[in-house]
Amino acid sequence: MFEYAPAPESRDIVDIKPSYGLFINGEWVEPQSEERHKTVNPATEEVLSEIVWAGEADVDRAVEAARKAFATWSAVPGSERAKYIFRIARIIQERSRELAVLESLDNGKPIRESRDVDLPLVAAHFFYYAGWADKLSYAGFGPDPRPLGVAGQVIPWNFPLLMLAWKIAPALACGNTVVLKPAETTPLTALAFAEICRQADLPPGVVNIVTGAGETGSALVRHPGVDKVAFTGSTEVGRLIARSVAGSRKKLTLELGGKAANIVFEDAAVDQAVEGIVNGIFFNQGHVCCAGSRLLVQESVAEEVLDALKRRLATLRMGDPLDKNTDIGAINSAAQLAKIRELSEAGESEGAERWSPPCPIPDRGFWFPPTVFTGVAQSHRIAREEIFGPVLSVLTFRTPAEAIEKANNTPYGLSAGVWTEKGSLMLWAASRLRAGVVWSNTFNRFDPASPFGGFKESGYGREGGRHGLEAYLAV
Amino acid sequence: MSERLAVRKTYKLFIGGAFPRSESGRSYVVTSSKGDFLANASRASRKDARDAVSAARKAFPGWSGATAYNRGQVLYRVAEMLEGRRAQFAAEIADAEGVGARKAGELVDAAVDRLVWYAGWSDKIGAVLGSANPVAGPYFNLSSPEPTGVVAVVAPPLGSLAGLVGVIAPVIVTGNTCVVIAPERAPLPSITLAEVLATSDVPGGVVNILTGSAAEIAPWLAGHMDVNAVDLAGADPDLAVTCEELAAENLKRVVRPPAAPVDWLADPGTDRMTAFLETKTVWHPIGT
C-alpha cells in the first residue's frame, strides 16, 4: 500500500456551540427537561457539545407549534412552498463543506463520503421535492391531494442529515409541518439545519427540532397531536411504533433493518463485482440498512472472488474521518461497537472463519476493522441478524434457484444485489428477489427520484420519487 | 301425495381449493335476517386458519408469477360463473340481508360488474403505478409494483356479495393470495362464492374462505408470521386494535376499518389494490 501524507480537511469551518436548546416555533428555546447529554466525536471521544434530551412537556410544545403552523403553511400556495424548499436546497449547497465536516465530526464517517455522497444527496432531495410542491395534482393521488397535518419524524444516526432530508423535504412539499427528532449520538447537523430554516425565512413552527433519545421519540410518536409518523431505524423499534399507533388514525411509514444478499453469479465481471461488494458492505462502515451484508457467491468462482476481495480490502485505509484519503471511518458509538463485537464473536463461536486485513487501529475512539467471515451457514447469527457494521458474511451457492432461495431466506426485504453479465439472468433474479431495491452490477446507489423502502420486516412505505409523496398525503 | 323433502346444502370451509369441515368439528347455526334457520356453517378454528395460510403461501409463487393477462382472464372467468349463478346468489342475499328480490338481483349484478372492472386492472396497474425514474447518473432505474404476499381479510359484515368481491378482487388481481374471514352472521354467499371460485380456473389456495367468528380467527391471522398484510374492513373497533397490535410483530401492512361506512357499489378507486402492493426499484448501469 502506498504511504500517503495526511490530508485532513480543516475543521475551522464549523462553529459548534458548547450547548444547544430545542428549536421550536422558529426559536431556540430552553427546555423544561433538565436532562443534558454530551455528543462526542466517535473518532477521538472528544466532547463536541451538549444537547437536551427533551421530555414530554417539550415535545408537547413542539407539536403545539407545528399544529398552529399547519393552519397557515398548508394554505400557502404550492408554488410559494416550493420556493422556500428551493431556498433551503440552495443554502445547503452553499454551506455543504461546513455541513460535511460537521457530519463527519459527529458521526465518524469519512469526509470523502459526507462530502461526495451525503451532502450532494441532501441538497438534491430538497431540490427534487421542492419541484413537487405545486404539482401534486399531477402526481396520481387525485385532483387535489391534501396534507396530513403534523408529521412526527424520528431518524437514525447513520446518515443524519440525509435522513432528515428524506423526511422533511417531502413533508413540507405536501404541506405538512414537522417535528423531527435526530438520533442522540448525531444531533449536530439537524441543529445546523434549524439555523438553515431561519436563514430561509421558513415560517416559524413549520420545522421543529427536538433532540433526545428513545423516550423523546416515543413521546413524539405517541403524541395525539401528531397525524403522521415516519421512522427510520431498527426493526425492533419499528415494531414498537407500529404497536403504539394501533387504533389511531395516524399514518405510518417505516424504513427498518435489512440483511441484503449480494449475489455474484459465475459469469460476473469479477473486478467490478469486488468493487461492488466493498461498496456494499464497507460504505459508511457498514452502518447502512441496505448494506450488502450477505455475499452469495457461486461456488465455481468463490475462490477467485474471495482472493480478489481480500487483495482489495488490504488497500482500504481506516482512520481519521476528516482525512481525505480515509476509506473507513469510526464506528458511531461505543454501544454500536459492542454490538458489532458481540455478533462477530458469535460468528467465530458458531464456526465461521474470520478474516481482516492488517489494519492499525487508532488508540482512541471507536473502531472496527473490515471483517470477512467465510464458511457461513444460513443458521449462523451473522447470516440472520443485522450487524450494522463492516462485517461481511460469505455464503456460496450452486444454482441460480439456490441463490434466490438463500437470498430470500430472511424476514427482511430491503435491498439486494445481482452481479452477472447476462441480461436475462439479471432480470430473472431481480424479479424473484423479495426486496424493495435491487442493484444489478452496482450497489448502494441513491437518488431523490428513485423510490426506496422495503418488503416484509424491512418496513413499509417508500421514500423518494413520486411514490414518496404518498406518505405525506391524505390518500 | 306428500311434498318432496328438500335436499339441504352443507356449507363447509374453502381451503386450498377443497371444501373441508372445520378440523375442530364445530359448526354454528346461520339464520335469515328474520331469524329462520338457513343452514349450519363450519366454525373455523386456529388450526383451520393456519391450514388456510399455508395453502395461500403455497399458491403465492404460481399466482404471483402468472402473467397479468392470465390473472385478468381468470378474474373475468369468475365474473362469468357468478353471472351464471345469479338466481342462487340473489336468493341467498335476499335471505341474509332481508332485501327484496329485485334489490338482491341488483347486488349480484354489482358484484359481477365489479369483478369485470378489477379483471381489467391486472395488466394496467403496473403502468399506472410504475415509473422509469430519471436518476442523476448513468443508470437505468425502474420501479414497478409487486404483490405483498399472503393477505388476511376480515370481510365487511354487510353488502355480503358486493362487499366480499370488493375486498377479494383487489387483493388477488395483482398476484396476492388471501385468507378471508366471511361475515359471521351472513356467511352463506361467501361459501357459494367459493364454489364459483373453485370452478373458475382460480388455482387452489389463491382464495381461502373461513366461516365462523372473526373475533376468534382474525387475531390468529393477524399474529401469524407467514401473513404479510391484514385488511380489517369488517373488524369492529376493539378487534381492529387487537389485530393491528398483533400485526406489528412482523410488520404486516394494515388496512384499518373504514372511518365511515363504505358504499360497496360506488367506484372503489385503486386504494384497495395499492394497499397490498410493494414497489420494487431495479438499478442497472448504462455503459458500453
UniProtKB/TrEMBL annotation, chain A:
Keywords: Oxidoreductase. PROSITE patterns: ALDEHYDE_DEHYDR_GLU. The active site is at E255. Residues 28-474 form the Aldehyde dehydrogenase domain. The keyword Electron transport does not apply. PANTHER family: ALDEHYDE DEHYDROGENASE-RELATED (PTHR11699). Belongs to the aldehyde dehydrogenase family. This is Aldehyde dehydrogenase.
TrEMBL record, chain B:
The keyword Oxidoreductase applies. Pfam families: Aldedh (PF00171). InterPro entries: Ald_DH/histidinol_DH, Ald_DH_N, Aldehyde_DH_dom. Signal peptide: none annotated. The lineage of its organism: Bacteria, Bacillati, Actinomycetota, Actinomycetes, Streptosporangiales. Residues 24-255 form the Aldehyde dehydrogenase domain. Gene3D superfamilies: Aldehyde Dehydrogenase, Chain A, domain 1. It comes from the Bacteria. PANTHER family: ALDEHYDE DEHYDROGENASE-RELATED (PTHR11699). This is Aldehyde dehydrogenase. Keywords: Oxidoreductase.
